[in-house]
Amino acid sequence: MADYDFDIGVIGGGAAGLTITAGAAQLGAKTLLIEKEKELGGDCLHFGCVPSKTLIKSAHVYHQMKTSERFGLPAVQVPPVDFRKVSARIQSVIDIIQHHDSEERFCNLGAKVQFGSPHFTDEHTVQLNGNQYSAKNWVVATGSSAFAPPVPGLDQTDYLTNREIFYMDRLPQSMIILGGGPIGCELGQAFNRFGTRVTIVDQLDQILGKEDRDMADTVKAVMASEGVDFQLGALIESVRDNGTEKEVVIKDNNGKQIALKAETILMSMGRRANTSGLDLDKIGVDFDRMGIKVDNRLRTTHKHIYAAGDVAGGYQFTHAAGYEGGIVVSNAIFHLPRKTNYAYLPWCTFTDPPLGSIGMNETMATEAGIDYKVWVEAFEANDRSLAEGETTGKIKMILDEKENPIGVQILGPNAGDLVGEWVAILNGKVKLSTLAAAVHPYPTMGEINKKVAGTFFSPKIFSDKVKKTLKFFFHLKGRACGPDVCVE
Ligand SMILES: Cc1cc2nc3c(=O)[nH]c(=O)nc-3n(C[C@H](O)[C@H](O)[C@H](O)COP(=O)(O)OP(=O)(O)OC[C@H]3O[C@@H](n4cnc5c(N)ncnc54)[C@H](O)[C@@H]3O)c2cc1C
To answer: What local confidence, expressed as pLDDT, does residue 486 receive?
Structure first.
């Protein structure tokens, strides 16, 4: 049997790579982790989830200050945002989390950490900083980067991506955001709240293209009411830097050519897999712009080379990367043939209100040919929502032909956390009657989960048939008050 330096080598120290490294090393596998940046943590920590959610919180507080009268408070004239201070707060949050993702921690777990950009020299060996490292199994977990489409002029124009936007030294006065997906919408709303004039351009005729239109349109309406401009159903024709500002020429949804101008451009038109420089093609691993081709055990065209996280091109979320990391550990270290199953993978877009989702939405159910029914409960009927002044949105529970829940979307306050209850219900195959009967604390947003399940049972419990049966057995006397009768 060939003798390799390591049992497993992991390329990329982000959510997927760190999960695999920690799991493999703690199970006693001799593990090598290679990261090209100076620190571990990946996009989520440095250029993704953590900085964006920290930024969104600052924008939310600033928005609350500007709209204080909504809460019966005095109106205040707030000074402009000093973005360097927002950026410093972002860095301070990252610094705290960085301790958890430190080289020392992984070394203490038993893994060897190396920094640099490796490339494969054969199916089991990489070259890094002049040295060769061989491993029985390899995992490519190199993540993704902002995709820049081949638009005329773009390659000669400076634009921002998620790598630069959190670290600017001042707030731009205006920003054109190319792409109305989760990243474009989250950041668009936040920068608009800070005072930047924001225009979001998307070729689709709705924002958040993976979501049901009714939910996405509500998010858009809220953002538009706060001042975000949208150009939807628009084609980007060219981009240029005219010296004082950037110009994006689009054909709008009426076919009219418009030149949008702004101080800066943010690119959020999807992601491309980070595969360059690894020489995957030279060792025969299949990939394209969207990602490395994997089977349902996350094995590439070479069964001992795995790919996990964004680079595998599936669900591009930190929790998906962590989940996939666990699948790789099962297959590569335990040798248990564990397959991926994304049926109940939840996600949330952290706009205000946020939009959380699990399982199928209406569009997906329609495409799957399911004869579904939707049960809806509005946040404006939730006491806590009223108290908080956060009444926009609703929950949609989708049931299949057998009246089993197949998906839930929540647009409203704390949606990401509220989806958590459905994670347990759907994965645990918990009956809806259990949810409807379970006591939830009052007053909480979480009651909306119980309420939507209760709404499903209401017509069954309070039916004429049930009333007649009870009257027959227990001689109930019927209504005491109503349009025709009022008994003293
Ligand atoms: C603005 C923004 C906001 C986001 N918000 C959320 C959110 O709220 N919730 C959520 O779940 N997800 C969010 N995401 C997505 C999330 O960040 C990614 O899904 C997640 O980071 C993927 O983890 P990963 O391990 O696949 O890749 P990464 O975390 O990117 O890690 C890949 C690592 O590989 C390294 N690497 C790359 N190439 C090489 C190479 N050749 N050699 C060695 N190392 C290499 C990189 O430096 C990086 O450290 C957001 C993303 C962005 C951009």
So the answer is: 65
From atom 50 of ligand 1, which residue's Cα is the shortest distance away? 48
Q: How far is the CA of 141 from the centre of ligand 1 (A)?
A: 9
Nearest CA to ligand 1 atom 20: 318
Measured in Å, residue 321 CA sits from the centre of ligand 1 at 9
Per-residue pLDDT tens for 33-82?
999 999 999 999 999 999 999 999 999 999 999 999 999 999 999 999 99
Helix pair angle (49-66, 83-100), 10° resolution? 140
Q: Rounded CA gap, 114 and 36, in Å?
A: 9
Mutate to test the pocket of ligand 1, among 49, 97, 128, 145 (most ligand atoms within 8 A of CB): 49
Q: Among residues of the chain, what percentage have pLDDT more than 90?
A: 97
Does the pLDDT value for residue 437 go beyond 80? Answer: yes
Buried b (16+ CB within 10 A) or exposed e, 108-146: eebbbbbbebbbbeeebbbbbeeeebbbbbbbbbbbbbb
**Which residues surround ligand 1 with Cβ inside 6 Å?**
11-17, 34-37, 42-44, 47-49, 52-53, 117-118, 141-143, 162, 183, 274, 277-278, 309-311, 316-319, 321, 350
Q: Whose CA is nearest to atom 5 of ligand 1?
A: 49
Ramachandran class of 116: left when φ > 0, alpha when ψ lies in -120 to 50, beta otherwise? left
Q: What is the pLDDT of residue 400?
A: 97
Ligand 1 pocket test: pick from 43, 138, 358 the residue with the most ligand atoms within 8 Å of its Cβ: 43
383's enclosing H/E stretch is: helix 383-388
Instruction: Give, using CA atoms, the residue closest to atom 53 of ligand 1.
Output: 48
pLDDT band at 483 (very low <50, low <70, confident <90, very high): confident
pLDDT digits (tens, 9 = 90+) for 450-468: 999 999 999 989 999 999 9
Distance CA 23, CA 326 (A): 8
